[in-house]
Amino acid sequence: MAVEGGMKCVKFLLFFFNFIFWICGLALIVVGILVQVSVHNTFMINDASASGAPIVVIGIGVVIFFIAFFGCCGAWKENYCMVTTFAVLLSLIIIVELAAAIAGYVFRNKISTVVQDSLTEMITNYKNGTEEFRASVDKLQEDLKCCGVTNSSDWRSFAPDGNSVPDSCCVNVTANCGKGTMTDASKVHTEGCRSAVEALLQKNILWVIVAALVIAFLQIMGIVFACCLMRGIRSGYEVM
C-alpha cells in the first residue's frame, strides 16, 4: 500500500515537472528569439559563431516543448514505453545542453572580436548601405548613446570635412546636428559603441545561462521521477 501511494505521488510529480518543462521550453524559445533578434537586427552581427548559441537555445526549447507534452502523456497513461522514451530523450537533451554550454564558454572570448569587426563593417558600409541598414545603425547609436566603434573619431571618413558624424551620434538629435561636431562632447556622444554592445550581449548571455541552469535542474529531477515511475510500472504496481 505504501509503495502504491509512493508511485502515485511519483506519477503526479512527474506530470507536474513535465508541465514546468513545457513552460520552460516555451521560455527558452522566447529567450533564444530575443537574443537572436538583438544580435542580428540591432547589432547587425553576421558572424556564424555569434548566432550559434541562441539558435541552439531555440532548438532545445522547441524539443523540450514537445518532449514535455510527450512526458505528460506517458505519466498520465502510465505507459512504460512512453516514460522510458521520455527519460532517454531528456538525457540526450542534457548532453546537447552541455555541448552548447561548452561552446558558449569557448565563444565568450570571441565576443570582443566579433563586435569590433561587425561595428567596423557597419561604419564602412553606412554611406552605401540601404535605408533600412542606416536606420538600424542610427537606432543602435541613439539607443546606446554611443558613436563609432571606440569613439566618434571612427566616423572621420563619413563626410568630406572629416569632422562630421551621423545625426544619431548627437546628444539631442536634430537635422544636421552632427555636422562639424565630431569631437564636441557637449553635442555628440564621443564614447564608442563597442563597450556598450559587449555589455548588452553579456547581459543577454547571462539570461540564457540562468535559463539553461534552471532547465537542467528540472530535467535531472524529471529523469529521476521518470526512472522511479518506470520501475513502479515494470514491477506491476497500480499507481492510480
From TrEMBL:
<dbReference type="InterPro" id="IPR008952">
    <property type="entry name" value="Tetraspanin_EC2_sf"/>
</dbReference>
<comment type="similarity">
    <text>Belongs to the tetraspanin (TM4SF) family.</text>
</comment>
<feature type="transmembrane region" description="Helical">
    <location>
        <begin position="205"/>
        <end position="230"/>
    </location>
</feature>
<keyword id="KW-1133">Transmembrane helix</keyword>
<keyword id="KW-0812">Transmembrane</keyword>
<feature type="disulfide bond">
    <location>
        <begin position="146"/>
        <end position="177"/>
    </location>
</feature>
<dbReference type="Pfam" id="PF00335">
    <property type="entry name" value="Tetraspanin"/>
</dbReference>
<keyword id="KW-1015">Disulfide bond</keyword>
<dbReference type="InterPro" id="IPR000301">
    <property type="entry name" value="Tetraspanin_animals"/>
</dbReference>
<protein>
    <recommendedName>
        <fullName>Tetraspanin</fullName>
    </recommendedName>
</protein>
<feature type="transmembrane region" description="Helical">
    <location>
        <begin position="55"/>
        <end position="76"/>
    </location>
</feature>
<keyword id="KW-0472">Membrane</keyword>
<dbReference type="GO" id="GO:1900746">
    <property type="term" value="P:regulation of vascular endothelial growth factor signaling pathway"/>
</dbReference>
<dbReference type="GO" id="GO:0035188">
    <property type="term" value="P:hatching"/>
</dbReference>
<dbReference type="GO" id="GO:0005886">
    <property type="term" value="C:plasma membrane"/>
</dbReference>
<feature type="transmembrane region" description="Helical">
    <location>
        <begin position="83"/>
        <end position="107"/>
    </location>
</feature>
<dbReference type="InterPro" id="IPR018503">
    <property type="entry name" value="Tetraspanin_CS"/>
</dbReference>
<feature type="transmembrane region" description="Helical">
    <location>
        <begin position="12"/>
        <end position="35"/>
    </location>
</feature>
<dbReference type="InterPro" id="IPR018499">
    <property type="entry name" value="Tetraspanin/Peripherin"/>
</dbReference>
